[in-house]
Amino acid sequence: MKAEKIWMDGKMTDWDKAQVHVCTHALHYGSGVFEGIRAYETESGTAVFRLKEHIDRLFNSAKIFKMDIPYSKEKFRQAVKDTIKANKLKSGYIRPLIYRGFKELGVNPFNCPINCAIAVWEWGAYLGEEALAKGIRTKISSYARSYINSTSQKAKICGNYINSIFAKMEAIEAGVDEAILLDTRGFVAEGSGENLFWIRNGVIYTTPTATVLEGITRDSIIKIAKDMGYQLQEKYICRDELYISDEVFFSGTAAEVTPIREIDNYQIGEGKRGPVTENIQKKFFDIAKGKEDKYLSWLEYI
After folding, report:
1. Which domain holds residue 264?
2. Does the annotation mark 156 as catalytic?
3. What is the CATH number of the domain that holds 156?
4. Which of 9, 86, 137, 239 qualifies as a FRET site for 108, CA 20 to 30 Å off?
5. What would you report as the CA-atom Rg of the chain, rounded to the nearest whole angstrom?
6. Out of 5, 81, 139, 156, which one is annotated catalytic?
């Protein structure tokens, strides 16, 4: 993971010189917000997937966290494209970050400046190329998704991801690929960095957004599935409904559409990527790579 340039506060900076002070507020307290975005290589050139929606969510996260971004949305979208150009990236991952910088330490963040950065790099399948075809092994985490009023669930705040890190570490040490978190009531929520879908008797289900992040890939999957003629419902469930589902899959910018073949040592369906997941996965990648005219508005070409 390395590229040539990182955009920092309006200027292109060499990757190895993109540094912050050790007393940066966000380093100590997690006081930043971020996005994860992908760019895909298409026959018409590199295109960013749903860039507008991602930058809208970034600005919403900053608003919730009371951070005034010193750039317009239009300038920030252009900065994303400029950074991709500067790195000659054909496809890969994009990480915009808005964070409280260095002035003073203490829980009060308001006296610290607002800094901005955009990094891009080549990045393949988040959980491995093989996972996209064969599926991954998961476990229900002992760590609950943070209570909805403990912080904001609608903002991608850096500090919130400590919850995900604990769940991910537990999963890795248990010998599986990923964690599934329950909410504080015991209902299925999401993965450490992914939204969750499951299929029973031909119907696709996903968790309501009250206790999970409003995923942009999640929104894309919902629209794709409905356009393909599938019935889709939002539903709260307990973990055992996942065990007896025909198929389960994760969605997310990093995870894209990743099948789940096992949860808590329970085989899901046939123990491999199921037909509904495969159909949606193929459609998603065709859209992301500019092969579906109906969805070209989701792509912003460089």
Report:
1. 129-288
2. yes
3. 3.20.10.10
4. 9
5. 19
6. 156
